[in-house]
Specification:
single chain; Arc Repressor Mutant, subunit A; mainly alpha; 3 strands
């Protein structure tokens, strides 16, 4: 058999390794798709928000979370991180500001721009959401032993790091 890219002949062990990797990646993808779909679904957010008494829709919570991860942060940077246009982000930020979850201050790098940070009320929302997610994950892993939970945490952390590495390299 001729290798598609180089024209070189691939030996049987190379073909078996390539097929095994492709099958493994297919299994990883098959596992990730429903997991990501579930964790990012509006229904799951409504369950988490309802159980934690969080009065935010999913979109605004995602903005609040992005602020928490990168504060102080400019609105334009948030728009890029969350993947919305700046005018949409401005509307989300205005609602969060009015609700008392974020505060605006002069950007330390550019006094003409504003940077957002969480208020104590915003931090409380983030803690409530973290606790509700923790409860959900605890429930899902209830039947797992400590060794499997520990291994899962390590492998998911490694996978997340590798996705970030790939993203930065692109």
């Amino acid at each position: 058999m001729v290798h598609t890219y180089t024209g070189a002949m691939a030996d049987d062990s190379t073909l078996l390794q390539s097929t095994a990797l492709r099958n493994t990646v297919d299994h990883v993808e098959d596992a990730l798709i429903p997991l990501v779909r579930y964790l990012s679904s509006p229904r799951t957010w409504r369950q988490i928000a309802g159980s934690a008494d969080i009065p935010l829709d999913r979109a605004r919570y995602m903005v609040l979370r992005a602020v928490a991860e990168t504060e102080p942060v400019r609105t334009t940077t948030l728009a890029e991180q969350v993947g919305v246009d700046p005018s949409t982000m401005s509307r989300h930020v205005a609602v969060l500001d009015q609700a008392g979850y974020v505060t605006r201050a002069a950007d330390p790098d550019d006094g003409r721009a504003q940077a957002l940070s969480l208020t104590p009320a915003g931090r409380e929302v983030m803690e409530k959401a973290r606790a509700a997610r923790h409860d959900l994950i605890t429930e899902a892993l209830a039947g797992w032993d400590d060794a499997d939970r520990t291994r899962l945490a390590a492998l998911l952390g490694r996978l997340a790091d590798d996705f970030l590495r790939v993203e930065r390299a692109r």
